[in-house]
Amino acid sequence: MRIKILAIGKTDQAELQALIDIYLNRLKHYIRLELVVLNDIKNSKNLSPSDQMIKEAELLSKHLQNTDTVFILDEKGKDYDSKGFAQKLQKLMNVGTKQLVLIIGGPYGFSPEFKQKAKGSLSLSNMTFSHQMIRLFLVEQIYRAFTILNNQPYHHE
Fold this sequence. Notes:
Helix content is 41%, strand content 22%. By secondary structure, the protein is an alpha/beta fold. α1 runs parallel beside α5 and α3 crosses α5 (131-149). The longest helix has 19 residues, at 131-149.
C-alpha cells in the first residue's frame, strides 16, 4: 500500500516543515508516503465559503484516481486512538488497498459532494488546529501506527 496525503496551502513555518520532514524520512522504512501540497485557491477572499469548497474539491479531484481509497480529515470524522488507527491501516493493507489518500482540506472543510467521494473521514482531535499543524500530527500518527504494527518501542502505554 502507498499513502498519499493531499493538503491545500503551503506550510509557511520552517520549524513545522522541518518536523514534518523528520517523520516523512522515518516513514521511508515502512511505507511509500507522499505529501502533496496544493496551492491555495486564488482570490479565495472574494469567494463565499461554499464556492471556495467547490473550487478546492475541483483541485483535489485532479489528484485522485478511481482506484484510490480516500479518507478526509474532518473534525466530525471517526476518532481513533493510536492503536485503533494502526489497526485501521493494517485492515486497509490486508484488503489489498493500493493507495490510501488522506486529504486535509481548506479552512471551511469539504463540500457535501466531495465528502461523498470519500470512503470515510477521520478526526485527529475535537479541537481546532491549523492545517499546517494537522500535517505534522498526521504524519506523526502514521509513523506511530507503523511502529505499533512492527512492535517497536516508539509507542508507550
